[in-house]
Design a protein that fits this description.
The complex is a heterodimer of chains A (288) and B (362). Chain A folds into two domains: 51 residues, no CATH class; 211 residues, MetI-like fold. Helix content of chain A is 76%, strand content 0%. In chain A, helix 5 crosses helix 8 and helix 5 runs antiparallel to helix 10. With 362 residues, chain B is α+β, with helices and mostly antiparallel strands. Helix content of chain B is 23%, strand content 34%. In chain B, helix 2 runs parallel beside helix 4. The relative contact order of chain B is 0.11. At the A-B interface, helix 9 and helix 10 of A face strand 6 and helix 2 of B. Bound molecules: adenosine-5'-triphosphate (ATP) and magnesium ion.
């Protein structure tokens, strides 16, 4: 009794700590093992891959000694250089194209008066995310073949076939962050610009675009990563001699995995992580 | 010399939505605002003040009617071609620009030279007393400072008309009072026509040259602060502006623009018939609490019982119930010797001069 009188405890809070634990999924029996198992499943293969890229031995299963020799090999390999260059070229061009399209699409779905079919437009833009990649790949291949037969267009020059194919599936990835940024932006700012004699173009150039930039960068980076990583569509669309990095790795693996393959993968992994982190930090800065 | 009309709305109507869910935000509003005036739109939340302002600024197209600036119809002119500027309720400062860049924005858009722009920005910073803060970002300013930047950004363009949408509502009371004085000073110094929106009747009374009281998308009365306060023409205006008593009276047939009103205690008062008022047997009058007094004499207009007496220092409020059951408030100044000790529960008479009676339209 005396205890209670001396230390008045808020009954709701005193209870809630225990009650919450009982309700909280994280405190259910067996939660931790399951969580750890999932994390292991996610990251163990990648970890093994990365570790064995530093193996001195030719084996990717038996560790002998630390070495950077596979990285040296990879960097010196002209085939890999060519493949990396092609991937970069295609990714850069596709990113630029996709980001421009995505920005325009985002403006058209947020900065206009509501129109009939606006929701439909949103779905159509994002549909490539849901269509199985192999379907897109086959469709693109068939479409290009049709173009070649009917119009006599050879899209292989300047890798236009790859760039166009990549642009298509990159658009929704670029679109989502840009649209998120735009719909979070108060339209009153553009009205203020118009009030201060800015024409619609000036208002876009000096107000909307600068505020949209973090979203555009985030979208572009996502598009870039998705393009660099793509295998299925590239494999089907690519003509002879159009070997992107993922296609090259695939070719190597069929001849048996060596730590060189691991090293290429590790490099791609690191580049991806850097990009994703940048996207994340840009997102953080926007929120402040 | 008669001053020119700066802004005019003619039968402006704005209907939002379609089908079942239409909202008449503005209903046939006509108002003419003269140059150099501090004009206030006053009304409760949702009465259409912002909508009228947005029609003048050009952010909305009226469903019907016309907007004129200096006699020219601008109804179909986009905002960036209208010589008006707006101070937004949320300030709407550009977050990626410094204070100085914000203020310079309108000038740059109109292609004013660099030197002239810089000079104007300095002037504006001085005018709103933000001298050294030109290099800061809006996020680094207090609410009051942001408010001043928004004001400076609009004023820098030397507009014909400045539209202010509840610019002070986000500020605390002390800052609000300061900014009221500041705004008034700036309006007098610059001579720009201000169209000021507020739902605070005290703010409207202290700052304005003219006030338009709005409700449900209509303007109910336009007049000077004294006219609005002392001669409200409708029940809503009388009730919305300050404290008032609404009393039912009998009305005789009007003659020569005058009408005789019979109060409950039997006495009659003759008042001038305001425009648009057609009393039919009965009428409602407004009596300000400070314009009426208590009496024990037989010469009285109304009678009632004192329910409560509240002492406020400078004055005392008596809360009464009239014989017909309606409440009534009487406020008496606490002058030396003028205090007579009325008791709670006492039956008293209420007396006032005929000019305290304001006959209402409805
Ligand atoms: N874009 C819009 N779409 C639909 N209805 C609207 C729109 N803008 C305003 N309204 C409606 O019109 C009416 C008037 O709105 P308005 O913003 O002009 O009121 P206000 O007098 O400025 O109120 P407050 O003092 O709360 O700012 C309200 O009923 C509001 O719901
Ligand atoms: Mg409003």
């Amino acid at each position: 009794m005396a205890d209670v009188a001396m230390k008045p405890v808020d009954p709701v809070r005193a209870l809630s700590r225990r009650e919450l634990r009982r309700l909280d999924l994280a405190y259910q029996p067996g939660f931790k093992p399951v969580a750890w198992f999932c994390i292991l499943l996610l990251y163990a293969p990648i970890l093994v891959l990365a570790v064995f890229s530093f193996n001195e031995n030719r084996s990717v299963t038996r560790w002998t000694q630390f070495s950077l020799k596979w990285f040296r090999d990879v960097i010196a390999n002209e085939n890999i250089q060519a493949a990396a260059l092609l991937s970069l070229q295609v990714a850069t061009a596709a990113t630029i194209g996709a980001t421009i399209c995505a920005t325009l699409a985002a403006l058209a779905t947020t900065r206009t008066l509501p129109y009939r079919g606006m929701g439909l437009a949103y779905i159509v833009i994002n549909l490539p995310l849901m269509v199985p990649e192999i379907v897109t790949a086959v469709a693109t291949l068939a479409f290009f073949a049709l173009g070649r037969v009917v119009l006599g267009l050879d899209l292989g020059v300047f890798n236009i076939n790859l760039i166009l194919a990549h642009m298509v599936f990159c658009i929704p990835f670029a679109y989502l962050p840009i649209r998120a940024r735009l719909s979070g932006m108060d339209r009153i700012l553009e009205q203020a610009a118009a009030d201060l004699y800015a024409t619609p173009w000036q208002s876009f150039r000096y107000v909307t675009l600068p505020l949209l930039t973090p979203g555009i960068i985030a979208g572009a980076m996502l598009a870039f990563i998705v393009s660099i990583d793509d295998f299925t569509i590239s494999q089907l669309v690519a003509g002879p001699g159009q070997t992107t990095l993922p296609i090259y790795i695939w070719g190597q693996i069929r001849r048996g995995i060596t730590p060189a393959t691991n090293a290429v993968s590790t490099i791609m992994l690191v580049v991806s992580i850097i990009f994703v982190s940048l996207v994340f930090f840009l997102g953080q800065r926007r929120r402040r | 010399m008669e001053k020119q009309i700066a802004v005019e709305a003619r039968g402006a109507t704005k209907i939002f939505g379609t089908g079942e869910e239409t909202v008449r935000a503005l209903d046939d509003v006509s108002v003419a605002i003269r140059e150099n005036q501090f004009f206030t739109l006053l009304g409760p939340s949702g009465c259409g003040k912002t909508t009228l302002l947005r029609l003048i600024a050009g952010f909305e197209l009226p469903s019907a009617g016309d907007i004129l600036l200096e006699g020219q119809s601008v109804t179909h002119l986009p905002p960036y071609k209208r010589l008006v500027n707006t101070v937004f309720q949320s300030y709407a400062l550009f977050p990626h620009m410094t204070v100085a860049e914000n203020i310079a924005f309108g000038l740059e858009m109109r292609g004013l030279g660099k030197a002239e722009t810089a000079k104007r920005v300095e002037e504006m910073l001085a005018l709103v007393r933000l001298g050294k803060l030109g290099g800061r970002r809006p996020a680094q300013l207090s609410g009051g400072q942001q408010q001043r930047v928004a004001l400076a950004r609009a004023l820098a363009n030397r507009p014909k008309v400045l539209l202010l949408d509840e610019p002070l509502s986000a500020l605390d009371l002390k800052l609000r009072k300061e900014m009221q004085i500041e705004l008034k000073r700036i309006q007098l110094e610059t001579g720009i026509t201000f169209v000021f929106v507020t739902h605070d009747q005290e703010e409207a009374l202290t700052m304005s040259d003219r006030i338009a009281v709005m409700n449900f998308g209509k303007i109910l009365q336009i007049g000077s602060p004294t006219a609005i306060y002392e001669h409200p023409t409708s029940r809503f205006v009388a009730d919305f502006i300050g404290e008032t008593n609404l009393v039912e009276v009998g009305a005789a047939a009007p003659a020569n623009g005058h009408v005789r009103l019979r109060f409950a205690a039997g006495n009659e008062v003759e008042v001038a018939l305001p425009e648009g008022v057609a009393p039919g047997g009965r009428a409602t009058v407004a009596l300000r609490p400070e314009r009426i007094s208590l009496t024990r004499d037989a010469a009285r207009m109304l009678t009632g019982r004192i329910d409560n007496i509240v002492y406020f220092g400078t004055d005392t409020s008596f809360y009464l119930t009239l014989d017909d059951g309606k409440p009534l408030l009487v406020r008496v100044q606490n002058r030396e010797g003028a205090r007579r000790s009325y008791e709670v529960g006492e039956q008293v008479g209420i007396a006032f001069r005929p000019d305290a009676v304001q006959l209402l339209r409805d």
